Amino acid sequence: MRWIYDDAFNFGRGLPFLKQVHGFVLDKPARIRRHLLDQGVARATDFEIPVAPTEDDLRAIHVADVVAGWHSAGAIARAVEMAPLAWLPTAIVRRLIVTPQIHACGGTELALRHAAKGEWAISLSGGFHHARPNLVHGFCLVNDVAWAVHRLNESGQHPRILVLDLDLHQGDGNAAMFSGRADVFTVSLHQEDTFPLPKLKSHLDVGLCGKVGDEEYHRELDALLDRVADAFAPEIVVYVAGTDPFEGDAIGSFRVTRAGLVERDRMVARFARRVGASLVALPAGGYSSESPAIAAAGFAAMAEIATTAAPRA
């Protein structure tokens, strides 16, 4: 397993008193890393530091108005639904919110490059799946998955990529970015009656409502993975592994336990191994103080399965 981390992944740097936004732990990447180190899953020397793209680079996936919005405290505040940020100097707001997401793009790009060589990789930030080419919202200001796929294609590589989104919220940004493409297949299992509303159309969507627990969630995921295997033969699985289906999450109504989420991650890893695909995992959303520990436990479970993954042909 390849591990990717940069201190620049963490939000809120420079304002140490700011710990959470909407329940989202701002230093979640650092906390995931600490859990992995404490559990002996990874060593400090295992983590690679990616190279972040420039804003000019990112014009390849976002329109000019979106890029210009990264220089407006008001536009950033609207995208992350935190009106008071509009009163802060733009340079501070950029450092708090925008810069970490741009660095996450570099992490996802590096992970996808490893995957294109048949390796499994986990970046400790990324999965900003609400950012569309012409709209940023839902705390997502730049689409790291779209950037990584663009860079891989730009280098002349065009593997079949499955974007499997199990965040609580539908990945409308990824749906928009990859609409109409035959080489990228977007799939989302999400809570139907929550943001984003209305939803965009992924290649395959399953929306659930109500207090969905472990048994129903796993049953729906198992059926979904079978449908995916019948519809698409991925060479790479990009897994948007949000922990917000968790029963203790502040935003969603799902009731999936911590053990249920770790088993979900095992199911995805087993699926990747079964179809002969390499796996990229990204932490995405999660609005609970337990989110970093849950993400780390899921990543550890995937890393264990990675050691027995069959090499790609």
Walk me through this protein's architecture.
The chain has 313 residues and is α/β, with parallel strands linked by helices. The protein contains ten helices and ten strands. The strands form two sheets. Strands 4-1-5-10-9-6-7-8 form an eight-stranded parallel sheet, with helices on both faces. A two-stranded antiparallel sheet has the order 2-3. β6, α7 and β7 (184-191) form a beta-alpha-beta unit. The protein is globular, with a radius of gyration of 18 Å.
CATH-scheme architecture: 3-Layer(aba) Sandwich
Summed up, the domain count is 1
Radius of gyration: 18 Å
With strands numbered from the N-terminus, the spatial order across the biggest sheet is 4-1-5-10-9-6-7-8
What's the count of strands? 10
Name of the CATH first level: Alpha Beta
Oligomer: single chain
Mean pLDDT over the residues = 94
Residue share in β-strands: 5-15%
